[in-house]
Write a structure and sequence with these properties.
Length: 426
């Protein structure tokens, strides 16, 4: 890999996936400073949903740059921020989510959502889930439980309690209509927390990812979110959905919850894919019951709702809709799962599970084969495919851009198959 003198000046705290120095990128491909091209199945950790440098998004950002680069939200509203609020209303999973607070990153939005929930309910505790990931700022880190490396050397804020997240394989998910629990009833774990560690009267919110991201692209069983919604309504607890990684079309719908139990969240957090690579995140909630009760001046941020990022986000939504990229996510995701089945990956390789929705796909290996997921990603990188692992278990996640073509998906799957053959000598 290319080494430049400036690399030594960068903080080493970032864990390395590759040592590639990128010069430019288009669509699903990155070109390094030596001219080598790489097929990108990481997309900046599920950020560039419209592909790298989509021309329409680039044009929208360029036009905004020539008008106003920064309009601080306490002082003036940028036209692009107002237009983005209008665009977001059209794609929300529930019309009750009609007010939006803009900030810069997923972690910042999680912090803001929890702060809103605590302020409105006047309760302090938050229930999260094991193997979850919500960010690495102090509050978000306290609600994260996917890897212990994230919390090394850092403190934790009080009032955070963890329940089990349902970890069912794709082969054992039981339809909710059967009346049978899937492996075990995951709601029992939440109710146990409420009985033993955080009483409903002390619990402001339950924070949950519809599909666990860093935890390994884990899908819950059918009916889980319906039961969670019913529990929150019964106990007077707010339900916060973290759609940071699963939102903005990645699963084949605007938001993953629409394909699960299609329930109404009280608060929803969106980030990553919303602005095609420019920093932006959003806290979505109802105005009358929540946002309008947020004490003015009690929260904010200098760069939140940056005019250029908002312009990029408006065009990102337009591109996702106009180019039918949600539909393409479904088609390419099905292509991947069909390829794995037809080529008998489960029989040929030590896989525990393959699962996913749209282009949010997890490949989990036998947990006894420590380090094998990393070996597969390293082997794939040698053949020009960029992949990432996920969580503390031996899992690879596929998160290519939603513009991915059928031939590029076939190429990537062939490289993964070849890499597994080399690692497992099969």
């Amino acid at each position: 890999m290319t080494r430049l003198p400036g690399l030594k000046a960068l903080a080493p705290v970032w864990s390395r996936v590759t040592n590639i120095v990128a010069k430019e990128a288009r669509g699903a491909w990155i070109t390094d400073v030596n001219g080598r091209k790489w097929l990108d199945f990481t997309t900046g950790i599920a950020v560039c949903n419209t592909g790298h440098c989509h021309p329409r998004v680039v044009s929208a950002a360029q036009q905004q740059l020539s008008k106003i680069m920064h309009a601080q939200m306490n002082i003036v509203y940028s036209e692009s921020a107002v237009k983005l609020a209008e665009s977001l209303q059209d794609i929300m999973p529930d019309p009750s989510l009609n007010r939006f607070f803009f900030t810069n990153s997923g972690a910042e939005a999680i912090e803001a959502a929890v702060k809103l929930a605590k302020q409105v309910t006047k309760k302090n505790n938050i229930i999260c889930f094991e193997n979850s990931f919500h960010g690495r700022t102090m509050g978000a880190l306290s609600m994260t439980a996917s890897k212990n490396v994230y919390s090394r050397g850092g403190g934790q804020v009080p009032g955070i309690h963890f329940a089990r997240f349902p970890r069912c394989s794709s082969s054992c998910r039981i339809p909710a209509s059967s009346g049978e629990p899937c492996c075990w009833d995951p709601i029992d774990s939440v109710e146990d927390v409420l009985k033993t560690r955080s009483a409903p009267g002390d619990t402001a919110a339950i924070l949950v990812e519809p599909i666990q991201g860093e935890g390994g692209y884990v899908l819950p069983p059918p009916g889980f979110f319906k039961k969670l919604r019913e529990l929150c309504d019964r106990e007077g607890i707010l339900l916060i959905l973290d759609e940071v990684q699963s939102g903005m079309g990645r699963t084949g719908s605007w938001f993953a919850i629409e394909q699960l139990d299609d329930i109404r969240p009280d608060i929803m957090v969106v980030a990553k894919g919303i602005a095609s690579g420019l920093p932006l995140s959003v806290v979505c909630a109802n105005g009358e019951s929540l946002m309008d009760k947020w004490i003015p001046g009690s929260h904010g941020g200098t760069y939140g709702g940056n005019a250029v990022s908002c312009a990029a986000a408006v065009e990102t939504i337009n591109v996702l809709r106009d180019e039918k990229l949600l539909e393409n996510a479904v088609a390419r995701g099905q292509q991947a799962l069909d390829f794995m089945r037809v080529n008998k990956w489960a029989e040929r390789f030590p896989l525990k599970d393959t699962r996913g929705l749209g282009l949010m796909i997890g490949i989990e290996f036998d947990p006894l084969l420590k380090g094998c997921a990393g070996k597969v990603t390293s082997a794939a990188l040698e053949d020009g495919l960029m992949l990432m692992t996920a969580g503390s278990r031996e899992t690879i996640r596929l998160m290519p851009p939603l513009v991915l073509s059928e031939p590029d998906m076939s190429l990537a799957l062939s490289i993964i198959e070849k890499s597994m053959s080399r690692v497992f000598k099969k």
